[in-house]
Amino acid sequence: MALNLLSKKIYLILVGISIILSLSIFSENSKKLLIIGDSISAGYGIPLNDHWVHILQQDLDSKGQNIQLINASVSGDTSGGGLSRIGKLLKDYSPDYILLELGGNDGLRGYAIDKIKKNIENICQIAIQENIPIWIMQIKLPPNYGFRYTEAFKNIYIEIAKKKQITLIPFILDKIALDEDFMQPDGIHPNQKSQPKIAKIMYESIHPLINK
What we know:
Number of strands: 5
CATH topology: Rossmann fold
Distance between the termini: 33 Å
Helix content: 40-55%
Number of domains: 1
CATH class: Alpha Beta
Structural class: alpha/beta
Largest sheet: 5 strands, parallel
Strand content: 5-15%
Radius of gyration: 16 Å
């Protein structure tokens, strides 16, 4: 879930360009869904037009859903990074919904559970204070991080969703990660082949929420 510094800078520029272009093609009546995530949502190793966010946008458009996806995900980002960015993102894009997919890099680096939980909870609280529905994605770690840590990590999202009474989205790689055909050689990032499947999974998760 990480990039070297140069690649990260280049990617941020490309993300910025894609966001600007996407903003210009939607009507003022479009509902905006802001995605704040790490490399799984940023499309690490995947051409921008082939990763799941782009495919999902096409699916929404084809079904007549007036939803604009704004992908502000950054490879290598952490819950702390998301917390530091959310204020500016809300100011810049005024989203109607937020999908939060963060914490994986925190867990892979063995960050303290309490710190991760506090960051994610604070992000959610900022959205709640702005009256913006926020959905958090359940993130899971590989089993080699030990049962105690992986269970505590998994419970972060369950506990926050319950406490804040917000929707918990199933882990994006639940039906992907254990199939080598759908994963890049690093075993962490989904490959290009998996992207349409992920888009379908995400459509099934968010479609009921945006139509409430």
